Amino acid sequence: MHNPPIRHCTACGSPVIYRVPEGDSRPRAVCPACGHIQYENPRNIVGVIPAWGQQVLLCKRAIEPRYGLWTLPAGFMEIGESTEVGALRETREEAGAEVALKGLYAVINVLPANQVYFFYRGQLTQPQWQAGEESLDVQLFHEADIPWEQIAFRSVAQTLRRYFADLRAGHFQIHTFDIA
Length: 180
Fold this sequence. Notes:
The chain is α+β, with helices and mostly antiparallel strands. The protein contains two helices and eleven strands.
């Protein structure tokens, strides 16, 4: 999954060309009309591992990509949000749940999608949730009951496996890994 190339300048609307600007090391979208350089950067995805005891809350996706598969509540970080605020918002929107954040848990570089995931551990403040507009269903799962073959994204599956291993070990650490 690679984003289509930039075709027009966001400053003046002229067609751009790709070249390595002076002092740079990568080809960039450069406007020959006004000289504006447009940089392409990864998108930030923020989410939570909402826990209730030994269980985690998962959402069944009501949107593409991966319609009908299970995931953690997460989504694109909005302009003006911190990663924490975005993660809480996504949990409210997708799972109808309130959580108390327990710290950053995983940073995942999803290289083919130009995305960086930030997952936080979260404790449900009460055993209440409901499917939001982007979810078909929301359920609590023990590790043994997770529908592993129906997890929407490798980033989520790998995060959940690490989470349950840390839960069994009795201590949590921050995980950083790449998905190529």
